[in-house]
């Protein structure tokens, strides 16, 4: 590995020298006045030294601010306060510190989950439940000599032993700890990663890259059969914006940067990537590349594959990167697409050049009420057909509409609840919408103010053709705000016998209604067949639109009281739901990825030959399975 | 291979059966009224049996309508008529049958090429110059038993032995024939291709897929070192539109279809793909996939990677295809991107599902004159920054503006020439544009009439900020029309000692001016250094805009009179031009691809590890190098 890397790097040096001599050739022999090379105007301007300021959402010891066995920040959680009302603690969110009067009743009526039946989590990790680390002494010595920070602390190791699948969080709540990494390292830059990978190859250590830790595909689970030392390569301290290029509207960023930090840093210069996955508070650029992430506003900014201009990844074979930052090329199969979606099986993404855009001048939320889901889907399909989708447009089904209501914070003003009541009367009694069938689309427009208002009119006009009624900005804004607190709700559920998960797919337009109906029905049937005592929550929304189809996002949760093995029941129902999705023409995943959770379907997804291609790349790049998370293949 | 294929196909059968049983499960146990599966509404509607009508631009014996040693149709060529005027023959084009009064003088003044100095082509192929075929008898017998049409005819074989690089056409004009395929086969459908590939694997025959034959990267050249029988797998008779899905706006098409036929067939149903590469009269869908093609109107319709929803390719290992037609997925690295750009090295693309759009209501051309190239580039950059590019926007330099003038057909009306003169006066004298510095952008808008007019205003307003002056629809329309006749001009040049080629790159915005200036200057210098007696034509245009850069297209041609080895001189200058492009931050290719012509730069383009990945895929998919065109690697 070391010799590959230095040969690779001296080769790149030779090529760079050659190029400089080509350009210098012009300077030596000026041809005529017009062709004087003005080299200075070619340099990336607008590089602000201050944007290299480190700005860490995520400290090395993440458990200082983040939950070790649940979602998100320690200080933010749903609880029932001493008055028995649901409340969201902390200060970080719009909802923080507020009472949510409807939530408790909703939990009871939806799940049969009452406050009497508690299943609290183990509050503190019992570190003696954590296996002592299997250390590879030579590797440890090697790391020490590099100066790269590391840890064998059981809390650090447990934190990085999992993502956020139900079957990963549930045991942690019970204080159960499975296979965890033996060591954590925190490289600070590309070269640190090169050294770490070289050492891992030399001493045969299993490396698992760890970015935001938000995987929901079991991608981060440590393979229990792994006998070598497992090292978690935590990228969070490798998180600088290295340069901003205002001429080309690109930024070069270290891959450990977290979504919220990236946007915040770029905003300071008046830019953004616009990439806003629901996990953006915690997920990392490297993770997005590894999983083919999708963001809420992809209609404007594109998905991750549209956003990246250049990627650098460290592999056991050496560093892979293209030599050019051109916008689009035909130079054989696109090697960026060997990296995108590789889910940590080939190497560590260290640096990425991303497209940036000026922060939009104007932003406007909106919402539309439809008489039923079918009309809503037809409207979204028409919006896609006319290629006039807003930055974001999402259609939730009736259950999610009810759920959204349950999450309304206590309003301080009588006037606002009067208004709400008036709206409700108008929509249900006056317009004749059936509250058990209506559904809501939330919208977000952004851009030049004038264009936004034009665009908005066009979309609402289409909505009207499908019986849609504009229902105001507030409902839209609340819908998007809730996105970031939904994940905290599962922890509340799990305090009261309720377990659940989200899963998603992409599907051609003409299959959307069937998939929504069939998958929700299948979930209900499977729960019944497996002895679940309470009606499950089985709900969906259309969360992205494309020319040729849509992304559909499901929530599934149930009260497991009375079941002896709830995780097993859950897994079986989820498995059946995925079979149902595939049978109805949906994909294995739109953006969550495959991980270990969905490996079994990979062969039928990409065909034998496709799977063989992926394996041949893996076998070439990482013959000793150093990147041994066992994802995908 | 046979066992792989039938195992693959019985596996797919099993999976399909499984899925049907999943869906049928719903029918057996109706859950409630709401969830009755209405299966019929899921079928692709709007499948018109008549669109499966075969419509062949390209007959099996292509030489019946196409030139065997030049570009395009036999009946269409530039000549000097008996009055010594340039004329374009035939009836197929807008320009056909017209006198082009300025062309002869332009040829003389630009190249020093006079009608006295002729280098006519050999009019007819001397079939005895063609090596007898090296036949693989077992393969031939196998093909005979399948009923797939085939030929050993020397004319058929020569036709498929080359693309349209200068170094391929020039020797043909001299009657020289190198290594050619030994046999041509014409499969008519996917299953024919499966049989052909199976036979090739079984009997170790080299297969070279042949679509439109328009390659300009030496991709189609037969490797002279190939000792096995070379079989040209001509896809042109596998060219049906299998279905149109109006619900999802997709069409499923056989990969041998030619661009003009595809659009014509879809237009009959009111649709289009909108994919219009300059080669579309002759190039094929399979070729576009294999080379990562780009179309003129990619700003609306996308490049080929944006257009494809599903691809089926036959390889020595079996058929590769995804199981889902979802719009966007995260299921590991995207195997479509292992196929796109594989340039015939992995297999034969047989069927593709492409996105289609309704034929736009309205189309409007336009043009803008800029005082100089720098202002024009700055304008295009601003249009890209505002993300308001028309369907097409191209900026040509001053030389191409002059050239465009030279190609004006004789106008029948005194009034039109008066108008032209008036425009010229206005632009040069009144507005003060210097005719030796001004340059022109051509534009095409399409869509809803109202939106087009708004869009047009926005673009012209931006142009005005950069000193641009609207110069009318005619100039725009002519610019695009000329696109299809330019390729014929090289044949005229070659009749009079002039040789030339186009080549292209993609490059970040801040490198565009330098690349244009440096590459053109380098070409001039290299010609001088190598003894070219006449000033070369060295010209460029910015032909596509992207967020992070542009595509730049160069023309390079010179009069080789007095040179003993013109092809060698040409190759050296082109090589130097590519080095100059790379040194200035341009890519190896935006859309022409790599072929054999640019292989030497692949390692530095994608890095050692990237190249190794591509090789590992090739070695897995085609271990015996059946697809032995030697492209890319």
Automatic annotation (TrEMBL), chains A, B:
The active site is at residue 553. Its cofactor is FAD. It catalyses: 1-hexadecanoylglycerone 3-phosphate + a long-chain fatty acid = a 1-acylglycerone 3-phosphate + hexadecanoate; a long chain fatty alcohol + a 1-acylglycerone 3-phosphate = a 1-O-alkylglycerone 3-phosphate + a long-chain fatty acid + H(+); hexadecan-1-ol + 1-hexadecanoylglycerone 3-phosphate = 1-O-hexadecylglycerone 3-phosphate + hexadecanoate + H(+). One of its GO terms (cellular component) is peroxisomal membrane. Residues 177-359 form the FAD-binding PCMH-type domain. The record marks 394 as: Important for enzyme activity. Its EC number is 2.5.1.26. It is found in: Peroxisome membrane. FAD binds at residues 209-215, 291-294, 343-349. The keyword Translocase does not apply. GO terms for molecular function: alkylglycerone-phosphate synthase activity; FAD binding. Its main location: membrane. Transmembrane segments: none annotated. Pathway: Glycerolipid metabolism; ether lipid biosynthesis; Lipid metabolism. One of its GO terms (biological process) is ether lipid biosynthetic process. Substrate binds at residue 490. It comes from the Eukaryota. Keywords: Acetylation, FAD, Flavoprotein, Lipid biosynthesis, Lipid metabolism, Membrane, Peroxisome, Phosphoprotein, Transferase, Transit peptide. It holds the Pfam family FAD-oxidase_C. Homodimer. Belongs to the FAD-binding oxidoreductase/transferase type 4 family. Catalyzes the exchange of the acyl chain in acyl-dihydroxyacetonephosphate (acyl-DHAP) for a long chain fatty alcohol, yielding the first ether linked intermediate, i.e. alkyl-dihydroxyacetonephosphate (alkyl-DHAP), in the pathway of ether lipid biosynthesis. Catalyzes the exchange of an acyl for a long-chain alkyl group and the formation of the ether bond in the biosynthesis of ether phospholipids. This is Alkylglycerone-phosphate synthase. It comes from Nothobranchius furzeri. The lineage of its organism: Eukaryota, Metazoa, Chordata, Craniata, Vertebrata.
